[in-house]
Amino acid sequence: MVDLSTSPTSARTASSEEPLIKAVGLRKVFPPTKRGGEPFTAVDGIDFELRRGEVFGFLGPNGAGKSSTMRMIGCVSPATGGELSILGMDPRVDSSKIKARLGVVPQEDSLDMELRVRENLLIYGRYFGLKRAEIAARTAELLEFVQLSDRADSPVEPLSGGMKRRLTIARSLINSPEILILDEPTTGLDPQARHVVWDRLFRLKQSGTTLILTTHYMDEAEQLCDRLVVMDHGRIAAEGSPRELIERYSTREVLEIRFAPDGADRAAAGAALAALVGTGERGAVDRIEELPDRILLYSDDGEAALAAVHGTGTVPVASLVRRSSLEDVFLHLTGRTLVD
Amino acid sequence: MTSADLYPFSQAPITRLLLGRRAFGSMGGGKAGVLIERNVMVYRRVWVAMVSGFFEPVFYLLSIGVGLGKLTGAVDGVPYAHYVAPGLLAVSAMNGAVFDATFNVFFKIKYAKIYDAMLATPLRVGDIALGDIMWAQLRGLMYSAAFLVIMLAMGLVHSWWALLALPVTVLIGFAFGAVGMAATSFMRSWQDFDMITLALMPMFLFSGAFYPLSVYNPQIRVLIEALPLYHGIDLLRALTLGRVHIGLLWDVLYLTVMALIGAAVAARRLEKLLLT
């Protein structure tokens, strides 16, 4: 496999324990958009550290402050308050030096539509001051990696959404970045295209690239992230590995039940279900979350919980037992779902 | 490895020559050359699209200079085509630069998001602003050179001073391009661009490209002399007609100051727009 990982500097400093990114009390406040309006606090004092070689995620719904955080790390948005150190440097002072060692995959592909696929990588490398011969060699490697070699001389416009995203990923790797920043890398892609992107990101992870990504897909976070923070309303609600978070904030299994849309059955079932909470018996329900379309019952034994539900005389139109996911963690921490 | 090692072109003499490192301060400007590389890459394939810019002033010259000139007789002591040609050269330098710095830049900011991608790299806003202004000037320079050759072929050039007309068209283009880009940074929608047409149209018609300012009363004359296009026309006409005098330095100073202020405002405004 080609060496997609990172520049020689990463080897040189690998022994040091210094985090690659360190944020303390980081804040981003946008001024009011209209006269007399309120300023908007997008990021409200967050602390985190990124360690070399890990995949670190920001999980949260739209508007949680994830993209604002990514833009501050990418040195394209000045922090309003707090401290931010990237690769040991201050973005206010050394933004160009920092950016020379970062790779960025923005939320919206910002490919150069006036250039061909290969040219996009070529000119991007030039923005980094790389030599043409060096870029040409790397371009071939990267197009191979994202499975676009056969489209090298194609215009960008006709590429599918998944191909454009892969091209953006290839472009972000042109300078052999020490940290790759991905802002919602698979949002807007169809399931098949998402899996291809995940596969490529997983390979990058395997080759030792440090990744920092935002997502509102819990399966994405669970598949890729070694460690993540759950973000909501500009704050960090929890931090840990996906497994730790699930163990800490949820039960092993979840029973989902649905009722007919008229709502009568559901209203009747409310009190009966509440009686199942904390009984201490097998199939006992830890807690209940009511969502508009279904009710979630958290239990270490979902099947036993379902039997208990039936035992109360409640008859849902549909039921499903599944393992707990980060979605449940998020729901527990914020009372809301990730994707509305 | 420092960024200085990575970027030999940060020392690019053309940037220093045009603005100096200081003009953009911490906003960069030294790596503007890659913007030109990018544009060359784009236009290499669609060079035909660039040809139209050459014909516009030539058609004006043939229609107004030669055609209308048959009726007017001598103006300011020379045949009308000789008089009007440098005026048209100045107008075309202005129009080309303004078009590039307004419509094209607005499109790149609002729709193509090209600048956002560039800012994820070590490029800074100053590099981008300066780079795209410089690109517009390079294009303009080619048109101006071609127009001067045509003037020469038609016998409209009176002096070797005319060689200096080339750098002067770049100065005119830079001044208008920089101010145009600064103005673009305030635009909210395409409708706002009517303001630019509104500013350019009267300047084009009344700044002395077509007739001497002596037709005006003194008050209007002062007003016209305060406009930038007048200074460009004054300079180019003096050079192609070989009527060089020390007062032309005032024209040069006017346009230089305009270029520097425009570029500084453009870079600062773009920084506000792009680095949010």
TrEMBL record, chain A:
<comment type="similarity">
    <text>Belongs to the ABC transporter superfamily.</text>
</comment>
<keyword id="KW-0067">ATP-binding</keyword>
<dbReference type="InterPro" id="IPR050763">
    <property type="entry name" value="ABC_transporter_ATP-binding"/>
</dbReference>
<protein>
    <submittedName>
        <fullName>ABC transporter ATP-binding protein</fullName>
    </submittedName>
</protein>
<keyword id="KW-0547">Nucleotide-binding</keyword>
<dbReference type="GO" id="GO:0005524">
    <property type="term" value="F:ATP binding"/>
</dbReference>
<dbReference type="InterPro" id="IPR003593">
    <property type="entry name" value="AAA+_ATPase"/>
</dbReference>
<dbReference type="InterPro" id="IPR003439">
    <property type="entry name" value="ABC_transporter-like_ATP-bd"/>
</dbReference>
<keyword id="KW-0813">Transport</keyword>
<dbReference type="InterPro" id="IPR017871">
    <property type="entry name" value="ABC_transporter-like_CS"/>
</dbReference>
<keyword id="KW-0046">Antibiotic resistance</keyword>
<dbReference type="InterPro" id="IPR027417">
    <property type="entry name" value="P-loop_NTPase"/>
</dbReference>
<dbReference type="Pfam" id="PF00005">
    <property type="entry name" value="ABC_tran"/>
</dbReference>
<feature type="domain" description="ABC transporter">
    <location>
        <begin position="21"/>
        <end position="258"/>
    </location>
</feature>
UniProtKB/TrEMBL annotation, chain B:
<feature type="transmembrane region" description="Helical">
    <location>
        <begin position="244"/>
        <end position="267"/>
    </location>
</feature>
<feature type="transmembrane region" description="Helical">
    <location>
        <begin position="80"/>
        <end position="107"/>
    </location>
</feature>
<keyword id="KW-0472">Membrane</keyword>
<dbReference type="InterPro" id="IPR013525">
    <property type="entry name" value="ABC2_TM"/>
</dbReference>
<feature type="transmembrane region" description="Helical">
    <location>
        <begin position="128"/>
        <end position="154"/>
    </location>
</feature>
<keyword id="KW-1133">Transmembrane helix</keyword>
<dbReference type="Pfam" id="PF01061">
    <property type="entry name" value="ABC2_membrane"/>
</dbReference>
<keyword id="KW-0813">Transport</keyword>
<keyword id="KW-1003">Cell membrane</keyword>
<keyword id="KW-0812">Transmembrane</keyword>
<feature type="transmembrane region" description="Helical">
    <location>
        <begin position="195"/>
        <end position="213"/>
    </location>
</feature>
<feature type="domain" description="ABC transmembrane type-2">
    <location>
        <begin position="48"/>
        <end position="273"/>
    </location>
</feature>
<keyword id="KW-0046">Antibiotic resistance</keyword>
<feature type="transmembrane region" description="Helical">
    <location>
        <begin position="46"/>
        <end position="68"/>
    </location>
</feature>
<protein>
    <recommendedName>
        <fullName>Transport permease protein</fullName>
    </recommendedName>
</protein>
<dbReference type="InterPro" id="IPR047817">
    <property type="entry name" value="ABC2_TM_bact-type"/>
</dbReference>
<feature type="transmembrane region" description="Helical">
    <location>
        <begin position="160"/>
        <end position="183"/>
    </location>
</feature>
<dbReference type="InterPro" id="IPR000412">
    <property type="entry name" value="ABC_2_transport"/>
</dbReference>
<comment type="similarity">
    <text>Belongs to the ABC-2 integral membrane protein family.</text>
</comment>
<dbReference type="InterPro" id="IPR051784">
    <property type="entry name" value="Nod_factor_ABC_transporter"/>
</dbReference>
